[in-house]
Amino acid sequence: MSSSLSERFKKAVGIGSGSLSVGEVVGATASSDAPASNPSVNWDELKSYRYDALNDMSKDIRLMTILPDEAQFPIRVSLEHVTLERVDKRPWNEGIFSLKQIRDTLPSGWEIREAFAEKYIFTSARANSWTHPSTGFPKSSYIAVRPPREPHYEALSYTWGEPGESKQIIVERVDTRSSSKPIVRQYKIEIRKNLYEALLELRDEKEPRTMWVDAICINQDDIEERNEQVLRMGDIFQWASRVVIWLGPESGDSELAMRSVAYIGKQIVACTDYWQMNSPDATERGWGFIQTKIPYSDSTWTAIEVLLRRPWFERLWVAQEAVLADATSIIKCGSSEMLITDFRAAVQKMGLTVHTPRVLRAIAMNISLVFRINKAQPLNLLLLRTSRKYCTDRRDRIYAVLGIAQKGLVDSIIPDYSINHIRVFRQATLAEINYSKKLDVLEHCHWADHRGQTPTWVPRLSGPLACGSIFPFHFASGYSAAMVHVEQYNKHHQLIVEGIECATVDVTGDPNHMSTDNMVDISKYCKKWVARVRSPELLNDVKFFNYLIRVLCLDEEDGRTTNVGYPQLDEWKRFFVRDKLSTETAQADNLVGAHNWQYDGYCKWAGRAIFLSEDNIIGVASMGTQPGDIVAVLLGHPSPVILRPVNDGTYKLVGDAFVPELSDANALLGPLPYPWIVQCYVREGINFSIPHFVNIETGKSSVLDPRLPPLEDWEIVEDESDLSVWTTGGYSFRNKKTGEKTHHDPRMRFDALKNRGVNVRQFRLI
Predict the structure, then answer these.
(1) In 10 A of CB 323, how many CB atoms?
(2) Domain named Heterokaryon incompatibility: which ranges (predicted)?
(3) pTM attached to this predicted model
(4) Backbone dihedral region of 437: left (phi > 0), alpha (psi from -120 to 50 degrees) or beta?
């Protein structure tokens, strides 16, 4: 279908026959027999291009074909309408075994991991391989081959750039209505400079190139079409033959930077569970290890930093475009290019290794967080990963990530550019809560971000979070569900939530504004706070002391979060405190697993402050927390929250908190009995940790809380739906009588907790 117009153009203008003449070129005021490829164009004589309406905006898209020509000639394109059906499943993945299925077939000593771009890699102590170690094992069981698909096109990912200098290109349209001889009519369209430079680089001298480019393929003046096409972005980039990421023209040492980054990436395989290893095709055999230093010169590292500071990496819309790009997709800077898989592996390596120059390491880590996003993620995680990305329209904070959000959520958010951003944020917040029955999205609400025109429970989403994210390991409300409703009072929207009040804040420390990711500095910050505590003898209390250490590392220790490589809790104690927070100098490099935590942990500490409650409960909370604020656990929220009482019985949401004493639903159900603990396992395929109850004597794990009575009318069943995978790691609770299915433990509902004597109640958030 997509080739039909291109074929007509070939026939009309004689492409392939040695001639570039056309039957007739019709301008604004006259028509004449003239070559389409004319290096000198009188733009004043060309009419502006007027879009034909799409027949069905929910199915049809436009594709642009860049017509071939030499570099000195104006850019000419053609547009056509094609049908792109929405398909939720990738048919070429059918028949591919899961990780578990393949793992069961592996010989002793072999393991399997999932690399990005839907590839499996087989690993052992001696070698890594793209092929199954058992001779004769069918490759069709683990290697997906994508068949050709119509319409065939590439999707361009680029930044629009700031309004200013614009360029003009020619849009050609074949008209066969008035003559048996095709007539090519020319029109003009204005585009911004960055896109113009991209088209110059992408144009071929001999062959047409069919692409989807948003600025040209969407009628930007048609709000209704924009609303509808925004919903198609995920389909458009997912079904493209490949994505071409345009960073801009070559400048300075960009060619050196591109070549150097690509070389790093070819040595490494980046996996979806944060692991990286040597590529089976590597020539530098040790570069896959995080600790290995890459021997680049200072000038090379500087060139790479300049490259990674290009505007493309700062823009919001390109995040979903990068995530949806397949393994054949490329990144271009001028004429230099590299595979997106090589780039993804390289930025992960540069972001994780402590030997990368400090500033570049932070830049690479931020870029890697976006490139590590999996498809069909919860909205709160997408907002977190993209919070540092820039967009000109605040509404795009939501709309720009719909292509990689969970389908059930996307179906309930309809892009509408006729309403303001505050309403968009409120609608999206409620849509996420009602869909997931979780309050995770409230982690984006911080007092320091709040402005008076919005409720405190609606994220402002105006840029980077004022506080680092401490989500998701704390499991404060267990597998409970958030059952909320909204009431309007005095023109204000009140969110009614359920939970339990746990403590009152008494003492707070200064917010952490450190500009370093050095863990030694975090330790010094905490020592300074300890000196202000009204009862220093608390440090002699073993229980309190352990809670303090858990606060310092935000519970990210190997006994709590498995398969990530964090230090053990005892190692944290030795590193951070050395004789109960002494002044002895600690060396981060000597802490096993520190490189996995250092930058990540610093980001979570940023903008937060330690607090102590009236009954000596210690925690770390959002900047802006004050004495008199209350600490509460809300059903469906993984972390405790700080609430500020208002005289009329309502509350303002200050932000979330980490309080180790309130982890694992302790505030709702009491402490776990021996021999049970909670551990968080990285769920294969989603790069996310799911809490499980583990019996340390038997080693068995379950999502069933041992503190609760038997399920009776309910049973637990496997469920690989998007929502279940992200909530309980692939399980659902099903009512044996009614068939009702939920992703939350029915024994943790409000009424059930009330019947157990738990003092849960409602809170009105304003």
Answers:
(1) 24
(2) 153-321
(3) 0.85
(4) left
Count of CA atoms in the C-beta half-sphere (13 A) of 492? 18
Asked if 11 and 176 count as a contact pair (C-beta separation under 8 A), the reply is: no
Q: Tell me the pLDDT tens digit for each residue of 153-177.
A: 999 999 998 888 899 999 999 887 7
- The secondary element (H helix, E strand) that includes residue 498 is strand 492-508
Residues 122 and 34 in one domain: no
| Residues 286, 287, 292, 293, Cα dihedral to 10° | 130
Q: How many CB atoms are located within 10 Å of the residue 684 CB?
A: 20
Cβ 469 vs Cβ 604: under 8 Å? yes
Radius of gyration, CA atoms only, the chain: 29
Q: Do 59 and 175 fall into the same domain? A: yes
Strand partners, 701: 694
Helix 594-605 × helix 358-371 angle, to 10°: 80
Question: The tokens of 342 are what?
Answer: 């090589």
How far apart CA 518 and CA 587 sit, in angstroms, is 10
Q: Which amino acid is at 552?
A: L
Residues 6+ apart with CB under 8 A from 7: none
Distance CA 188, CA 160 (A): 19
Q: Are residues 47 and 176 in the same domain?
A: yes
**Rounded Cα distance, 157 and 160, in Å:** 10
- Residue in 192, 190, 158, 187 with CA at minimum distance from that of residue 175: 187
**Sign of the torsion angle spanned by Cα atoms 141, 142, 147, 150:** positive
184 and 213 in a single domain? The answer is: yes
**171 within domain boundaries:** yes
| Together in a domain, 106 and 229 | no
CB 639 within 8 A of CB 474: yes
Distance CA(691)–CA(680), nearest Å, equals: 4
CA dihedral 347, 352, 354, 355 (to 10 degrees): -30
Is 62 found in the same domain as 172? yes
Residue 381: which H helix or E strand, with range? helix 379-385
**Parallel, antiparallel, or unpaired for β 31-32 and 651-658?**
unpaired
Q: Is residue 168 part of a domain?
A: yes
Note whether residue 509 is domain-resident. Answer: no
Domain assignment of residue 217, yes or no? yes
Domains held by the chain: number: 2
Cβ burial of 40 (10 Å; 0-12, 13-18, 19+) is exposed
Q: Supply the range of the domain harboring residue 43.
A: 3-84+151-240
- The token duo for 336 is 């230099």
Model confidence at 643, in pLDDT bands (50, 70, 90)?
A: very high
CA 560/CA 568 separation, integer angstroms = 9
3-state SS, residue 548: helix
pLDDT tens for residues 227-284?
999 889 999 999 999 999 999 999 999 999 999 999 999 999 998 877 899 999 999 9
Structure token digits, residue 347:
């930025």
